[in-house]
Write a structure and sequence with these properties.
The complex is a heterodimer of chains A (425) and B (307). With 425 residues, chain A is of the alpha+beta class. Chain A contains 12 helices and 23 strands. Chain B has 9 helices and 14 strands. Classes of the chains: A alpha+beta (425), B alpha/beta (307). Chains A and B meet through β2, α8 and α12 of A and α1, α4 and α5 of B.
Chain lengths: 425, 307
């Protein structure tokens, strides 16, 4: 079978796995470059990858006080902890530091670069920091919170602002929801001047500060729309001593579905921030998310893949991954999917769950069994095939002399694999 | 009766000459769908052979509706052109007929394109958009019926159960579960898993409640957003027909996107536990395992005196 499956004499283009719709995150320094270009006020800063560059940045900025900021694709950096990659020992508390001297810059940059930064958003594995941002100091009068995102219920862009800047916004939403002000933008009329003023006034701004806010929020909405953002979050947004609104942080995510009209994104992508297996899966047209359990799953469709994980858990097992092979996957794609599952050393058994629509069950059966034989599969394999060509698929599984078990329903499949790996079911 | 799409609905295919449009066009005709024409800009005046039928191709939706008096269209065009195709169809149906159903199968449409397209459709009260990124809608008939989308036709049969789902293959699973207790379907709708889409759960529930053919509904949700909670609250106040509910994603960890762009638990919101709890509070019969949907449906029908 070649790259495309032939059905009814017609070539069927492979449908992409549903997982393609993701957010592409960028670093703070890249977000601030977008802001500056659109006229949103940011502080002068320099992106660095070494201690020497950080010192040169300090010299060039001409600011006595600077912020030395770890650049990773996760929030909570300020309250994070840096660990030595080799020894696992704590190097420094806080991934964002205020330096009052050249010596401070040297110490902080050395403590941050090449270390593992663990924040409440990274998970315990953390992220290795290879990028720094050295930024001029700022005289802060007040900190605010600001975010733009797509509200799925209202089906429009939502702008949220709060006077409680620097705080965990989810905590604010929980304890004082009235402190969060919201406006929804209609796509045809865009963000109205009255909405800009309404939001600024709700934050208690007036005079120069209100004027500064109104200009900034208009530019930010343009940044959001022009760049196909999924999210823009500024926490904190600050009012400086002169009354100007300044973006002290920038968390920007793009809607990956729009990448076809943003060739510039290719140069902004930091692949070291993404899970290597997930990148490989995506290249093969698969949607894969690694989890912590022991039962590998290979499923067609995102909803069914989630349901398969749920049922494994319901019967006492733990899923090792989410894996959606999409619709109409060919044998090469399924082989790649199977290999990706088996590269996870935690996997003690595999459950294949296919409800064939466009996907033909016999193609899956062949690909799975061939791959199993080729790599000398040494963990139990349970296969559930239903829908298009399920009889042919089950016959292929039954005729195989490999250690695989054919079942009729998802529940039977989950119970069987949990039992085979010595679980509770 | 069924909802929105009758067994004999007249259908246009947008993107009919593309590989997806022609492949699924054949499957739909084989099922019994009345495909009356297709649209591919620049190929108007040509014809295409699908499953032994000669189908006319038009340049625009306006031309196609004028020539065929179609009731619905299905969109198989690539993501970058899909929002424009939705708006073209909505505009043409609205101007020529004042009503029409637009089903968008395309996956991977930019979210901000959908924000625009949905606002455009919402301004035209006679137009219903289903999808995008969905398996479509099917109303099984005695012989054939109307299949609009990519679902496998052969697993369905005409009956009295309505099915609504955010997912594709999980919808097929739910359909198979109704069949396992010898119940067919009135209409099955995949509303799609994207963050911004057209028809939602409540629209479907309202239509099924009003549909004399439907006696009960199977509703399949997934983690992310609050559509399931909203649907449950609405159903508690407005539905007399029994509902069986399942939510995919109980095992999904927060912050990890599970395939669908919308399927993510963020800020502790949108969990399966919350959605199941909302279902239970609304008197919805819940299945924790999709393999039990059939059995739970049987109990619900028995309780309601329908078996």
């Amino acid at each position: 079978m070649s790259k495309s499956a032939t059905t009814g004499g017609r070539i069927v283009e492979r449908r992409r796995a549903s997982g393609r719709a993701v957010i592409m995150n960028i670093h703070e320094y890249q977000g601030k470059q977008l802001f500056a270009k659109a006229g949103v006020k940011v502080l002068a800063g320099v992106h660095c990858r070494s201690v020497e560059q950080a010192l040169a940045a300090y010299d060039s900025l001409g600011s006595k006080v600077v912020a030395v900021k770890s650049q990773i694709h996760a929030g909570g950096r300020g309250k994070g902890t840096l660990y030595d990659v080799e020894s696992g020992e704590i190097v420094m508390e806080g991934g964002v530091k205020i330096a009052f001297s050249r010596e401070d810059v040297k110490t902080y940059a050395a403590n941050i670069l090449g270390r593992r930064l663990v924040t409440k958003q990274t998970g315990s594995e953390g992220k290795i920091v290879s990028n720094l941002y050295v930024e001029s100091g700022c005289d802060i009068a007040h900190e605010y919170y600001l975010a733009l995102l797509v509200d799925r219920e209202a089906k429009s862009v939502l702008i949220m602002a709060s006077t409680e800047g620097g705080m965990d916004i989810e905590e604010v939403a929980e304890t004082t929801p009235e402190a969060i002000h919201k406006v929804w933008v209609k796509p045809d009329s865009g963000l109205l001047d009255s909405q800009k003023t309404e939001l600024g006034t709700a934050l208690g701004l007036s005079g120069t500060s209100l004027e500064s806010f109104v200009g900034m929020i208009g530019s930010l909405y343009d940044v959001f729309v022009d760049n196909d953002c999924s999210m823009v979050e500024i926490n904190p947004l600050v009012r400086d001593a002169a009354g100007e609104m300044v973006a002290l942080d920038a968390k920007v995510g793009f809607d990956d579905n729009a990448s076809f009209r943003h060739p510039e994104w290719a140069g902004m992508r930091d692949l070291s921030e993404e899970e290597p297996t997930e990148i490989r899966a995506k290249a093969a047209g698969l949607s894969y998310v690694k989890l912590d359990g022991e039962i590998g799953c290979l499923v067609n469709g995102a909803g069914l893949a989630m349901a398969t994980m749920d049922v494994i858990q319901l019967y006492g097992g733990e899923p090792a991954n989410f894996l959606d092979i999409g619709g109409g996957a060919d044998e090469a794609t399924i082989r790649e999917a199977f290999k990706i599952i088996l590269e996870d050393p935690n996997v003690k058994g595999i459950l294949v769950n296919i409800f064939g629509g466009i996907q033909r069950c016999d193609i899956v059966a062949n690909a799975v069994l061939e791959t199993s034989a080729a790599i000398g599969l040494d963990v139990p394999l349970v296969i559930r095939l239903s829908g298009t060509n399920f009889e042919e698929g089950r016959a292929i599984v039954d005729a195989s002399n490999l250690d695989c078990h054919s079942v009729e329903t998802l529940a039977e499949g989950a119970k069987a694999i949990v039992e085979l790996i010595g679980g509770e079911a | 009766m069924a909802i929105w799409i009758g067994e004999d609905a007249k259908l246009l295919i947008q993107g009919i000459t593309g590989s997806q449009g022609s492949f699924h066009g054949e499957k739909m005709i084989e099922y019994g769908t009345d495909v009356v024409g297709g649209v591919t800009p620049g190929k108007g005046g040509q014809t295409i052979e699908l499953a032994g039928e000669t189908i006319a191709v038009y340049n625009t939706m306006v031309e196609a509706i004028e020539a065929t008096d179609a009731d619905a269209s299905v969109i198989y065009v690539p993501p970058r052109f899909a929002a424009a195709a939705i708006m073209e169809a909505a505009d043409a149906f609205d101007r020529l007929k004042g009503e029409g159903v637009v089903v968008c199968i395309t996956e991977g449409i930019p979210t901000l394109d959908m924000v625009k397209a949905v606002a455009f459709v919402d301004e035209r009260s006679g137009i219903r958009l289903i999808g995008p990124n969905c398996p479509g809608i099917i109303t099984p008939g005695e012989n054939g019926g109307s299949k609009i989308g990519i679902m496998p036709g052969h697993i369905h049969a005409k009956g009295r159960i309505g099915v609504i789902s955010k997912s594709g293959t999980l919808t097929y699973e739910a359909v198979a579960q109704t069949m396992s207790i010898s119940e067919g379907q009135s209409t099955c709708i995949g509303i799609g898993g994207d963050p911004v889409n057209g028809t939602g759960f409540i629209d479907c529930l309202e239509a099924f409640e009003a549909d004399p053919q439907t006696v009960a509904v199977v509703l399949i949700g997934e983690i992310g957003g609050t559509a399931e909670e909203d649907a449950a609250a609405w159903a508690a106040d407005n539905m007399n027909k029994p509902i069986v509910g399942f939510v995919a994603g109980s095992s999904a960890p927060p912050g990890k996107r599970m395939g669908h762009a919308g399927a993510i638990i963020s800020g502790g919101k949108g969990t399966a536990a919350e959605k199941f709890a909302a279902f239970e509070a609304a008197g919805i019969h819940i299945a924790r395992d999709p393999s039990e949907i059939g059995e739970v449906l049987r109990q619900a029908l028995t309780e309601a005196g329908l078996l």
